[in-house]
């Protein structure tokens, strides 16, 4: 019976090569997870449950043959298969709402790239690139099985003040980009979700993640082919320039995807001023230690505020530029209000003179 089952699975996998890449990736991931489960059951579970698992595998094979054997896949079935989330997705377990939505809708990819040095393996599994952000699951494992919590390992690097311990490259060009890390749940504590806010990237590129491991004193370089997962992103712009207290704010772009809302803001001063002169002209109430300290909320027509994911910013010439990311609203908004504010102790002090109202096209 096992030989027959293996034969059916092999035949099915051969036929799966004819499927679109996204569908094939989801099915391949399901095979791997089931096969892994089979090995675990072989070690720990009684024979009766092993037989039950074999029945499940046979059912998967049979259903696959029914789908593929007819020589075509209907559009409805193709969409259903694309929407199968990656099995064991960390995005689904501990990701923000945007990552959970992206995984459920089949917008993430199973990167499956790893590098091993001296018994330590760093790997990147699930990845999302929707044009607004890059999020990936980064895992560190050791051959002795005593996997240190990712947060503890990372804090150890910070304590040692190791420089350039993680760098990112797109098509071999280093990205000057902010990033954040979100440590995972207890059952996968040696993993983290890394999120980048790139300024501008093509729809397809090679992402390289270079990590210095302080424990092994080795450099790990992981290369991943990346392709934008969404096509019909909604992009809002505004020609308005809002001015108040020597602050001139404009909205470069507000982009919405199923996984992310991204706001790009610029602050300028008087014509000819450089960034130092702009900062000097702005009243102290908008600054912390001499730096501009204006943050932003994103609100829909229902008065709901979108949770913040992260932000980055830099200044050059006579322009300060900021990129801020937010989780998407649960239902598509009709209008977007950008609400600048400064934080005074525990209270947000909004600046209504600098608010922007953006209608969302239907």
The quaternary structure here is single chain
CATH topology of the largest domain: Immunoglobulin-like
Helix content: 25-40%
CATH architecture of the largest domain: Sandwich
In DSSP terms (H or I, runs of 4 or more residues), the helix count works out at 8
Largest sheet: 6 strands, antiparallel
In short:
This protein is of the alpha+beta class.
Protein described:
By secondary structure, the chain is of the alpha+beta class. The protein has 3 domains: 2-82, no CATH class; 90-227, Immunoglobulin-like (Sandwich); 234-359, Sandwich (Immunoglobulin-like). 28% of the residues lie in helices and 37% in strands. It is built from 8 helices and 21 strands. Strands 10, 11, 12, 13, 17 and 18 form a 6-stranded antiparallel beta sheet that branches. Helix 1 runs parallel beside helix 3 (47-69) and helix 2 packs antiparallel against helix 3. The radius of gyration is 24 Å and the shape is globular. The model is unreliable at 15-20, 30-73 and 76-82 (pLDDT under 50).
SSE blueprint:
Elements: H1 2-16, H2 21-44, H3 47-69, H4 75-82, H5 90-94, H6 97-104, E1 109-117, E2 120-129, E3 134-142, H7 150-160, E4 166-170, E5 173-174, E6 179-183, E7 191-196, E8 204-213, E9 218-227, E10 234-236, E11 242-244, E12 247-256, E13 261-268, H8 275-281, E14 287-288, E15 291-292, E16 295-299, E17 308-316, E18 319-326, E19 335-344, E20 347-350, E21 356-359
Helix pairs in contact: 1-3, 2-3
């Amino acid at each position: 019976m096992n030989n027959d089952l293996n034969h059916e699975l092999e035949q099915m996998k051969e036929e799966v090569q004819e499927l679109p890449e996204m569908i094939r990736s989801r099915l391949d991931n399901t095979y791997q997870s089931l096969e892994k489960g089979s090995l675990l059951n072989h070690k720990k579970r009684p024979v009766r449950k092993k037989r039950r698992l074999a029945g499940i595998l046979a059912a998967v094979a049979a259903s696959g043959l029914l789908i593929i054997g007819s020589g075509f896949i209907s559009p409805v079935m193709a969409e259903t298969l694309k929407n199968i989330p990656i099995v064991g997705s960390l995005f689904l377990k501990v990701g923000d709402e945007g990552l959970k939505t992206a995984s459920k809708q089949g917008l993430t990819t199973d990167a499956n790239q790893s590098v091993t040095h001296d018994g330590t393996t760093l790997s990147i599994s699930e990845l999302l690139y929707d044009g607004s952000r890059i999020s990936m699951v980064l895992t560190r494992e050791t051959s002795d099985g005593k996997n240190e919590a990712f947060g503890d390992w990372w804090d150890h690097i910070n304590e040692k003040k190791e420089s350039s311990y993680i760098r990112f490259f797109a098509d071999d060009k280093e990205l000057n980009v902010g990033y954040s890390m979100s440590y995972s749940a207890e059952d996968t504590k040696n993993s983290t979700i890394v999120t980048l806010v790139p300024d501008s990237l093509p729809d397809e590129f090679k992402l390289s993640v270079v990590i210095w491991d302080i424990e092994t004193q080795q450099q790990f370089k992981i290369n991943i082919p990346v392709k934008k997962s969404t096509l019909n992103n909604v992009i809002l712009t505004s020609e308005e320039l809002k001015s108040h207290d020597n602050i001139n704010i404009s909205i470069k772009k507000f982009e919405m995807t199923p996984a992310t809302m991204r706001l790009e803001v610029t602050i300028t001063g008087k014509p000819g001023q450089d960034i130092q002169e702009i900062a000097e002209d702005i009243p102290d109430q908008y600054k912390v230690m001499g730096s501009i300290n204006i943050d932003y909320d994103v609100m829909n027509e229902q008065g709901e505020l979108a949770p913040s994911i992260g932000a980055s910013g830099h200044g050059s010439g006579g322009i300060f530029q900021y990129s801020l990311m937010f989780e998407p609203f649960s239902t598509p908004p009709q209008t977007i209000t950008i609400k600048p504010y400064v934080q005074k102790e525990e209270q947000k002090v909004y600046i209504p003179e600098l608010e922007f109202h953006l209608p969302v096209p239907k």
